[in-house]
Specification:
The protein is α/β, with parallel strands linked by helices. The protein has two domains: 203 residues, 3-Layer(aba) Sandwich (Rossmann fold), CATH 3.40.50; 89 residues, de novo design (two linked rop proteins) (Up-down Bundle), CATH 1.20.1440.230. Helices cover 41% and strands 14% of the residues. The chain has a five-stranded mixed β-sheet, with helices on both faces. A four-stranded parallel β-sheet has the order 3-2-1-4, with helices on both faces. Strand 2, helix 6 and strand 3 form a beta-alpha-beta unit. Helix 2 crosses helix 8, helix 10 packs antiparallel against helix 11 and helix 10 runs antiparallel to helix 13. The chain starts with 17 loop residues before the first helix and ends in a 23-residue tail after the last helix. The relative contact order is 0.13. The structure holds flavin mononucleotide (FMN) and iron/sulfur cluster. Flavin mononucleotide binds next to strand 4.
């Protein structure tokens, strides 16, 4: 498998304008019922993190009255850049996918949502203006917070509310934007939909590719397009290769988990939004995890107890452990109790995501945990590896 040769979503390293895009991909076929079967046969799954089968979602929304399509390009995960990169380099493939999805489900309203502080809003506005059908897509620029990309939060914001999740009981595919069935689909998923429509399910399944954000101890951190299942050594070589000895990988971003560094790992569909960060051997996995858990606690929409109080308590325990304070052993003992108080109890998956990362840190950095519990950290360097940006603005 040659990872370098496959470039379906990101064929160029410069933004692909409307005319060049047309020349490269050709015109978009009509969306008919046969296309839904083709999407099903392609096995396309959501690229926003959960990996839900796209055809199943399209069919469910299509059954409702006058549905709405929302293209989710918010990408609140700080370690992920794949959606921003796709929107920058190949905006027309995403827009084609969103328009195609609208045709497939019978939607008249199409909203493309991006973060409000990045350069995406200007780029997408330009891309829409360049197309004859660009007026059919509304551009929504949303607050930049981790949970804003959660589908019910996004729908609530589009409906005029705060960009906070509205709970597991409100399902946008039944009742979403304007109270109508709403298809919320990640922008990478929509770009793939536009490829399936053009080239078919067989083509898609052959060398199916995914976008991955590779960071940490690599020569060229950034976004790469690689075949699904690519071995990690090949993935890292696409990012210029690793620069120093590595102890662990964070896979799936801040909803993901730590894995001990091994060459036998492969990039799979279960690895969330496919963020892979190589943690140098000189760094401390507990210090990194403590910073991320604190960031996740701060990013809570603070609406449910398990998320508001549970994540805060988890962050405090992890901070005590990371600093190898005299109470570190006590804090380690507290983690299990906290897990029981938080797991499955939030109104959305945010606290479970943070908890998963914390639990994997305990498993993977076990030896370091014992060292911290006895008051010392064995790492040589506490320079941050994982980004935990400062939050800007409110929820509206
Ligand atoms: C806290 C939280 C944050 C999320 N952030 C994003 C995001 O930034 N982008 C995204 O596409 N999906 C995000 N999701 C997943 C969305 O809720 C939704 O499942 C996704 O947009 C559906 O698209 P897909 O089926 O194409 O993956 C998030 C979910 C949760 C629980
Ligand atoms: S679990 Fe957290 S982020 Fe999710 S709805 Fe509750 S408070 Fe908000």
């Amino acid at each position: 498998m040659d990872a370098v040769a496959v470039r379906r979503l990101l064929p160029t390293s410069e933004p692909l304008g409307w005319r060049d895009y047309g020349a490269r991909y050709g015109s978009l076929p009509f969306a008919d019922a046969g296309l839904l079967d083709e999407v099903e046969a392609s096995g396309l799954t959501g690229r926003g993190g959960a990996g839900f089968p796209t055809a199943q979602k399209l069919r469910a929304v299509r059954e409702g009255r006058r549905p709405v399509v929302v293209a989710n390009g918010t990408e609140g995960e700080p370690a992920s850049w794949k959606d921003k990169t796709l929107l920058r380099l190949n905006p027309h493939l995403v827009i084609d996918g969103a328009l195609l999805a609208a045709e497939l489900v019978g939607a008249r309203r199409v909203v493309l949502a991006v973060g409000r502080h990045g350069a995406e809003q200007v780029r997408i506005a330009r891309a829409l203006a360049a197309r004859p059908d660009g007026g059919a897509v509304e551009l929504a620029t949303v607050p930049e917070r981790f949970v804003v990309g959660e589908e019910s939060a996004l729908v609530h914001w589009i409906n005029g509310g705060e960009a906070k999740p509205t709970g597991r009981r409100s399902r946008p595919y039944q009742r979403g934007v304007d109270g109508r069935p709403t298809l919320v689909q990640n922008v990478e998923t929509l770009a793939n939909l536009a490829l399936v429509a053009r080239y078919g399910a067989d083509w898609f399944r052959r060398d199916e590719t995914v976008l991955a954000t590779v960071g940490g101890a690599v020569r060229r951190p950034g976004v790469v397009e690689v075949p699904l299942g690519v071995p990690f050594p090949e993935l890292f070589s696409r990012a210029g290769g690793v620069t120093e000895p590595v102890q662990a990988y964070l896979v799936g971003g801040y909803f993901g988990r730590w894995l001990p560094a091994q060459d036998t790992l492969r990039l799979t569909g279960e690895m969330g939004a496919r963020v892979v960060v190589a943690l140098p051997a000189r760094s401390c996995g507990l210090v990194e995890s403590a910073r991320v858990v604190a960031y996740m606690a701060q990013q809570s929409a603070k609406q449910c107890g398990p998320c508001l109080f549970g994540l805060q308590a988890l962050a405090e325990s992890f901070a005590t452990i990371a600093r190898a304070e005299p109470e570190a052993a006590e804090a380690v003992a507290r983690l299990e109790r906290l897990e029981r108080r938080i797991r499955g109890r939030g109104a959305c998956a945010h606290p479970d995501g943070a908890l998963g990362l914390a639990a994997s840190a305990v498993r993977v950095f076990g030896a370091e945990l014992s060292a911290h519990a006895s008051g010392r950290c064995t790492a040589h360097d506490h320079e941050p590896v994982l980004p935990t940006p400062h939050v800007k603005g409110g929820w509206r």
